[in-house]
Amino acid sequence: MTRDNQRLNTDLQQARTETQQLRGRVTELEDDLAAARTSLRRMIREGSLPDSAR
Predict the structure, then answer these.
(1) I need a surface site. Which of 8, 19, 22, 47 has the fewest CB within 10 A?
(2) CA gap 14, 12 in Å, rounded
(3) What is the pLDDT of residue 48?
(4) DSSP assignment, residue 52?
(5) Contact (CB, 8 A) for 18 and 12
């Protein structure tokens, strides 16, 4: 039972570490998305979309 408990605790710590890393990545991607939206809005307002995007 002690061995099982240790394995579960190790698995739990690994899952927590992975969750923390993934949350950081989600934050980065959300920032990138917000920047892309801002850039696209600016391009639309300025009428400077490339011809292929119109």
Answers:
(1) 47
(2) 5
(3) 73
(4) G
(5) no
For 10-30, what is each residue's pLDDT tens digit? 999 999 999 999 999 999 999
> CB neighbours of 49 closer than 8 A, spacing ≥ 6?
43
pLDDT, tens digit, for every residue of 32-47?
999 999 999 998 888 8
Tokens of 27: 């934050």
Q: Which helix (H) or strand (E) holds 49?
A: none
Q: Are 24 and 30 in contact (CB under 8 A)?
A: no
> Which run of H or of E encompasses 35?
helix 2-46
Question: Which residue type is seen at 20?
Answer: Q
